[in-house]
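Form 7-S
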Amino acid sequence: MEIDLLAALAQYRMVIGYLGEKERYGWWQSSFFTQGSSAFLSPLFGRTQILAQCNGVTQAAALMHDERIGVGNVYHLFRLPEELEQSIHQALHNAQLGETIQKIISSKDFALDYLRKNSATPDKPGIGPTRVGNINALREQKAWNDVAGLYLSAFEEQNEIFPYFTNLT
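Output:
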């Protein structure tokens, strides 16, 4: 698996997780990226705070996605095949990637700008559960750029979207 794709997945996960939290767009009810949470997590996790935040927001977002999409033969940004999950986890141990992510999610505007610069404009913006492609596309950068574009469009239009991949028709 390409390192660039793993870094992109980690960044997309963190940015969209951050934007989906209740203090911003309120798609899920977590608050892992508030000042209060940083004050709480920093003494406990020190050098792995970004990893703890990622794990927390991933679980919160995954619950909402699974509730709306369902589970079984379906994958989304917050629940991927095990080898991708492990690779993202390893990528987040990279201090440089962690610093990059922290800069991107330092404000709602920075996070939205990141998505604008690193996503594809969707052919048709979707609402709710939206099939992006088959499971083979999980390892294609273009598919994830499309996913990021769908999330961006939904944030800007004040809609909720839950992009997913499946081989089921």
